[in-house]
Amino acid sequence: MPEYAFIGRSNVGKSSLINMLTGKKGLAKTSQTPGKTQLINHFLINENWYIVDLPGYGYARASKSKKADWDKFIHTYLDKRESLQCVMVLIDSRLEPQKIDLEFCNWLGEKGLSFVLIFTKADKQSGVKTDQNVSRFKKALGETYEEIPEYFITSSETQLGHDDILTFIDKINKVFEIPHLN
Predict the structure, then answer these.
(1) pTM confidence score
(2) Helix residue spans in the chain (DSSP H)
(3) What's the pLDDT tens digit per position in 113-127?
(4) Which of 64, 113, 118, 143 is deepest in the core (most CB within 10 A)?
């Protein structure tokens, strides 16, 4: 079954976004403490595809060896998983482009992995400020990419982006369902 991996810096709002997309408030555990997700969690959606909740990268209260273990199994999952259709890279829309986010996107590009950008927490500031930060991120990413990946602006509070993301996933799933000739 197709899988969509959700990943971003610690505390980017990944669990809240997953809960918003599924309509299940406590599905992914939310916390003010970065680094709560420490395993790869698969959530089966409508019996035909998975949301994959990956540990966040960046700041988390964990030892260097624990962080190194997370990095290794995350990179192995992303690089080797045949059913992975797209990596959903979450970016905090309130922040200027962060080096760690850009580096992660560049790693995905080097590996030839399909990804989209999901800018979170748009309700926490004005639309103008969100648009400015999205533009800055796209410009920074444009230094290494000829074509900027598709992106979505979201708010778990207001449901902004809910339908757009699920429509995007549904389009890919329809292609995935086409029986392949042997």
Answers:
(1) 0.89
(2) 14-22, 64-80, 99-111, 127-141, 162-177
(3) 999 999 999 999 999
(4) 118
